[in-house]
Amino acid sequence: MKNYKLSKTIFVCQGCGYQSLKWMGKCPECGEWNSLVEERQNHTLLSGGSTPVSRSRPVTLEAVEMNQHRRISTNIQEFDRVLGGGLVPGSLILVGGDPGIGKSTLMLQVLHRLATGKQKVLYVSGEESLEQIKLRSERLNTVSENLWVVSETTLESISAMANEMVPNAMVVDSIQTVFSPELTSAPGSVSQVREATMHLMHLAKRTGIPIFLVGHVTKDGAIAGPRLLEHMVDTVLYFEGERNNIFRILRAVKNRFGSTNEIGVFEMRDNGLCEIVNPSAIFLSQRPFLVPGSVVTASIEGSRPILFDLQALVGSASFGTPRRTVLGVDHNRVSLLVAVMEKKLGLQLMNQDIFVNVTGGVKVDEPAVDLGIVSAIASSFYDKPVKESTLVLGEIGLTGEVRGISQAESRVQEARKMGFRRCLIPENNLKDLKGLSDIEMVGVQTISGVVDLLF
Fold first, then answer.
1. CATH fold of 77-277, please?
2. Has domain 282-454 been given CATH number 3.40.50.300?
3. In this structure, are residues 392 and 377 in contact, taking their beta carbons and an 8 Å threshold?
């Protein structure tokens, strides 16, 4: 039986992976302009029209044997937390983040911790030479005899080295630079990224090597390449933070071996990233006391509560249209809460500039911090501070009611540990917090009642 190779030219969108037989200026799938690039695909057909028969056979779920794999600890507590307890053998992990945020630094430090524990690890760089990696490793103090480095971009060579060396963990930095000569498209294209990820996924599952893939992100913050890339891997981690801020947050948005939305907090220093075991203490360390517009609230990130300082500034608008600048929380949510305050509290905010910021570079997207936003705006508007030992929690509805929140007990426990003595929480959550006697808990039902209690 002979094989026949057929090739055809197609146009592939570099944003979403949409394929077309002809060029188009605008992708009909994602709406991007000038994103379709010409690529050549090769298909192999068998003579006679027959297809290979799969050797896999279905089995019952009860007959599947479980192989217990012990997780590999990286000896970095915050990193292990995000992964769900450590590295799973054979897992494929995608790490994304803005340029210069510290992805390569984090990967070098993780491999160094593994190498210190007598693990043989391999760092594959497609963007830096060996001299550059050595300079950065000396600055980070991550030089180890068990840490192997190589500068390579060819997919076949990387696979051959992994099969020959069989490391305990491997990093490919970055996946957009890896290419296969069998494909005619340029490195970083949809076809090359998809082929490289698929090949490395099979390598990880076959050999049991945990593989980290470092990925670039687009201007919108999403990992560059088709969305299929995130579906193929086992875990997707985003490294977030402002480049002029010392704090970095590692967030898991997908994890087949642990909980999602778990975060790890790091601090960028001259000698690399340093993990922050108690983020609440760090975020509140520089909090101003008895200053109008500053309120402390709590958010659940993954499995743990984190306290942070939420600040607001309200002032008269200099122009006809008032400004609404929001950092760290949802802009639409703040606009909604301002409208509720105008309706239910009678505050004249339509002619006021409002600025809201979450200190420390944290991004919060849960409704349990609504009461903190309202309290901070009201505090700045009235020019009256909130007591320094007071914590506010609660979701606010459109009618001005304060609704119950989830995991209220863990939030209050964290506040008590940080020295807070008074907590304003929804009335519906009071019945679940009867055992906490050393902290005053005040149940609230409406935002007007909250304002009366605070000011």
1. Rossmann fold (3.40.50)
2. no
3. no
